[in-house]
Each structure stands twice: as C-alpha cells, then as structure tokens.
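quick one before i forget lol
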Amino acid sequence: MSAETELVLPLDANPITVPDGMEARLRDRLRLERLRSGRQSLANRLALGLALIGPGLLVMLGDNDAGGVITYAQTGASYGLSLFIPLMIPLGFIAYLVQEMTIRLGAVTRRGHAEMIWKRYGAFWGAFSLIDLVVANVLTLMTEFIGIRVASEIFHLSYLVTIPAAFAFIVGILLFLNYARWERISLFVAAFNLVFVPLALASHPDWAAIGRTFAGSGWALPGGLFSASFLILVSANIGTTIAPWQLFFQQSCLVDKGLLPKDIPASRRDLMLGVTGMVMVAIAIIVLAGQHLHGLPNASSLSDDSVLAGIGAKLGQGAMAVFALGLVEAGLIASIVITASTAWAIGEAFDVPRSINVSPRRSLVFYAPAIAGTAIAAAVLMLPHVPVGFLNLTVQVVATVFMPAAMLFLLMLLNDRELMGEHVNSSLRNALSVGVMVMLIICNGLYGIATIFPHAL
C-alpha cells in the first residue's frame, strides 16, 4: 500500500486523500455505522452485536495467560478444593468493575489510556505510567514464553524452534494484518483458552466437595491466613485477574476498533462474556489441580513441567497433552495482546500514528519498541536455565504491586466531569474502586511483612 490512498466515501463523488492506514479504519467504522443505522431487525442487531465483540473477550481470555494457568494450578495443588474456588467469582466482578471504566473512557474520549495520562497529567506521570507498563509487560511476556517452552516439549518439539515460531506469529499478525483481521485471528486463538473446562469436567471432579467450598466449609488453610505462602498466592491470583496492561489494552483496542458512546452497552456485554470465560477457566484449573495435584511435595512451588507431569501421572498422557495445548494457547494469546498493549501505549505517548491499520514503514516508533520488548522476553526464555516457578509467581505479584497506581490514574480520569460528561463515575463505582485499591495495598503490605518478618503476623 502506498503512503497515501485515495478513498471514495459513500454519497461523495469527490475522492479524498487519506493517510496510510486510515482507509481500513474508515471502512471498519463505516461498516459499523451502516449496522447501527440499518433496520432494527433481529438479524441486523445480531450482526452489530457480533461486530462489536472483541476487546472485552480478548482482554479477559488473554488474562488467563500461561503464568495465570500455572498460578491457578499452584493454588489448587497447595490448597485443594478450598476458598480459592469461590474467590474467583468476586475477582471476576472486580475485573469487570475495573475494565468497564476503560470502556467508558475510551468510547467517550476516543483516546487511549497512555495518551490520556500523558496529556491530562503531564510528561512526568505519563513517563512513570509508561515505564511501569513496559517493565511489567516484558516480565509478563517471559512467563508466556515459559508456558510455550515447557508445553511444546510435551509434543517433542524443541523450544529453540517453538519460541521463535511463536514470536514470528505474534509479530507477523501485528505487522502485516489490519485491525479487523488481527482481531479475528486473535479471537480464534483465544477460543482455545476454554479447553481447560472440558478437561476439568472429564476428570470426574468431586462436585460435593466443590459445593462445600461455596458453602464456606472445607477451607483448609495450612499455615493460616497470614502465612507467606497463602498471601503470595492471594496476591498472585489477584495479579493474574487484574493487571496494568489490561487497562491500556482494552481502551486502546476499542479506540482502534472505532467504538462510540452508543456502543458502551454492547461493549459491556462483550466484557461480561470475557469475564465469564475467565472465571470458568480459572475455576476449572483450580478444580483440576485441587483434586489431582493437591498433596504433592512442594505443591506451592510447582512449575510448568511439574504441573504437566502431575497431570500426566494422574489422568494419563492424553490429558497431559490437552493441558499442554491449553498452556501453549494461553501463552500465545497473552503475548499477542500484551505486545499490542505496549505498541499502543508507546505510540500514544510519543504521539505517532498508532493503529494496527498503519503500515510499519510509516510508524516505526509504534511497532518497533513493542516488538523489541517481546524479543527480549523470548530471548531470555531461550537460555538453558531459567527459574520458571519463582519467575512466574514473582511476575503475578509485581502486577498486583503496580495495579493501585494504574487504578488511581483511571479513577481520576473517570471523575473528570469536563472530560466524561454524563459518563462520569458514580459514587458507588468510586467507592467500590477505592475499596479494590485498598484491598490491593493491604494485601501487598501483609505479604511484604510476612516475607520480611515471618513471625510478625
């Protein structure tokens, strides 16, 4: 495609010149507008609903990444069928609460999260939030390639082949596809995240024991509520449910997709669908590990390969292969969306063309730093000896530590009446959001105390 393209818009006989990348974006937005303004038939409403699906599903299924899968498995292996199963439901509501704010902010302002922080609060806080995001994203991407590395070996494939292949796929669809095709392929990959649900059902779970966890009984907590092992798993589970990259990704994603304030209800349904999928997968993995891996030696420090070995020993090679396939998918979809979140954030911060519709040669600053970050993460995981178990839990806890600051910026933007108008945050949403921030800070504080002073609690 040339640097500029002539596009004839409907009802206009005169051609206009639009920048490279805008043609695809305009076509996508015109298609949405035709669906919005068409006959209000069931078929048309269904077509519009399907067209608006994407950002919410991707952000939440991408949240069930390779690190999250192993965190859930470590949780089940450590505590069995216990309080972590019902805990996933309120964590799902927290994820919805946080991500719904990014929907309103993106639809009303038509600006990405990094751009809003940079322009509203200045270069210092913009740089602060951007550095936090990029560091956390590179660390998180390492856990994604851990999952791909370990799971690929189950299929007798060398990680020296599978990691570069995964990297090439992630970069290829970002560089060479427009937004609509990138989203469709990403959704196709994300759908395989649900493979853990039938795997858990096929493992003959103890439904009575699962029911007792929702009734508040059977919550065995070796070491107590304030043990370091319990607090790190609580922090890690929160960190794999809500993370800073999700705020940046979903807001920029729906801006690139071209959604408007009138699309907020449909975007909320898209998000709820994603949250439901996330919670189902999380519970499925905890149940699977809680029933079949609980009681194994050093259960709290199980790594990817020991989880797979345990599944194989208890449920057979077929189940191990399905779990490995899910782990590869989890690492792949998370890498796709995290790389995109980095690209959007850096593009917004430096005020360069920042759309997946833009060709690489026209916006190198948009693509290159994100690809470099993903390349660093992939390169680290091609080294022969990496402490995978320690790295995985550490990354999830880091996400929890970074989250209060990210939420603070989000809250300030959502309470800016000049910016948000009628879509400003309600008092109830503010109270709930502040409660989430306080919970994160307390959880981080308790974990820090339990780690440094193990006998203080």
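fyi Confidence is low (pLDDT under 50) at residues 1-9.
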